[in-house]
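User: I'm putting together a teaching handout on how multi-component assemblies are represented. Below are the sequence lines for each component of a complex, exactly as they appear in our records. Could you produce the 3D structure of the whole assembly as structure tokens, so the students can see both representations side by side? Please keep the chain order the same as the input.
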Amino acid sequence: MSTESALEPATEITSWGRVVRGRQRVARPAFRDRIDMAQATAGGTCLAVGLRRSYGDSCLNAGGVLIEMTRLDRMMALDTQSRVLRAEAGASLTDILTLVVPHGLFVPTCPGTRFVTLGGAVANDVHGKNHHRAGAFGRHVRAIGLLRSDGRRLTVSATEQGELFAATIGGLGLTGLIEWVELDLVPVPSAWLEVETVRFASLDAFWEIARASAATHEHTVAWIDGAASGPALGRGIFSRANWAGAGGFATHRDRSLRLPFDPPFTLVTPATIRWFNALYDRLGARNGQTRAQHYALFFFPLDRIGAWNRVYGRRGFYQYQCVIPPAAQEQAVRAMLQAVVAAGEASALAVLKTFGELPSLGILSFPRAGATLALDLANRGTRTLELMEKLDAIVRDAAGALYPAKDARMSAEMFRAGYPQWTRFAPHIDPAFASDFWRRVGHDR
Amino acid sequence: MTDSGANKRVIILGAASAIAERAARLWARDGAALVLVGRDTAHLAAIAADLRIRGAVAVHPVVLDLSTADARRELEEMTKLIAHIDVVLVAYGVLGDQAAAEQDFVTARRILDTDFVSAADWCLAAARQLAAQRAGTLIVLGSVAGDRGRGSNYIYGAAKGGLGILVEGLAHRLAPTGARAVLVKPGLVDTLMTAGFAKGALWSGPEAIAAAIRRAAERGGPVIYAPWWWRLVMLIIRLMPSSLMHRTGL
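Assistant: Of course. Below is the structure of the complete assembly, with chains in the same order as your input.
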């Protein structure tokens, strides 16, 4: 109905964490031949974005153009025998799962939300609870259609322009516009998982369970009580699962609850966190029990509440997600949890998982062997920033790295320390592509 | 044919629009046979490939300029492709540029020709087919802009308002035959999903309108608002006295 290739006037746009915002123009092409590179780059730089579930500023390009890819969400080819899907980059995992689960297929790994696009999954080389078995998302990508700002359409893969392929996986959308993705799918015996929850009273116990579970369970993750301190520091609930052999292939439902309004202040305070964590602890208390859980509930519990990020009110929130190499992981994770408690903060959602050894394919990929800790922190201004600087010091000393998809504030030094390969990445950046994140970590344009 | 909504045989006029494509996906998932009509060969091919993967048993792209084609003859040809019609969805149109149309009557005329004259042709042709079958549903995308003339879009509004009267009349005419005609009026459709929540509660995605269209193929009508509460919003707008209306920029 409307003119499809027109740029909208500049609008203030924010990302999932709702801390960073900026004015930018948006193009929303509905067809691949309507992506107008000349128009998008006429006044400066552009960046292709998907569902903008990145928490910080890696999906923003203030003063420039965002090419929103969500209307480019068509399936292009599906071979259920060889288990290969090719789809436009704006196709979301929620849409793909609706299509492939009835065929007994699943995506090889998935993040904690199904509201991510294929392009976003590639650009952030996302990981899931099965990292110790499957590695990161990029390992399952067969080929990528890349549109560069000079109008060239390239097909990149491990064998065709391998360096550009490796730069594009985890490349934060900076190597050009990801137009389509060809992905390997995996067979699953049902849409259900056999999930076992195990309570642990300390961090030491966590490491023990994590080591044992890696061999027996395809999916592992732990929730940490971010309000616990002293001898209880690091207690939590370990959740481990394997696909269930039976149960059928029912897909998820698309309905979700929504917060009907935007609370003027955060509902997430140390008091409510203590209450929530205590409640979660009670509910998760069926220690050692195994039960069948649908994939939607196991992989995407927060998707049941649409726009849950709004509970943090107008000031938004940060997520701090780091990875620590194996040698330092036990000591560093303990130090970080202590720092959070010492700062008088409490993380509403603290998630701890061990990554496996399978190397990520991307030059800038975040997942690497070790442990990853993710902390949601309500934005309380300077206090919160100071806490994260303390956490930075621990991560840097442990030779760890922060996850750009979650980050809204790391320094250039911190980025370069975590991603020393950035110099190998930089030559592959499309000269007309940029993001607020990339500018912030010390690069011009 | 069936009440379940499965295995529908559907002709979509203006198949490349966001709303029409999402409605087509809902039918495709349930094993529909679809005729997709639009102007651009490549765009129809991309949509057709997607719909086949999503479960459509047959997809027939037809490249045609709907605003100039011979509706009656072309619709007969399309019907042959699927043998029987369960649904004809009229989803094409131009929003047009009201400011330009006020200065340039050719632009104004083009909006009226496409959104009313040509759409009416196709509606009449579809009604003829459905009446002969004594079954099937004509679904026409209207607009809340057709409910009351407003300074910002009265030319488009006039075309859509006129089309609404036509569809209501067709619904009346078809009632004894078993065929149906339904006007679906979307409210504000966010096909440009930008600033997070800045667009507020009045906006809906094209998926919501598509779901209403799919329901309209089974029951309801002859006038459906999508989402339903737009009926209340438009009631208030229609009842607003002109003295008040004229002070707003609506």
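A couple of points students might notice: Chain A is about 25% helix and 25% strand. Residues 382-397 of chain A form the longest helix (16 residues).
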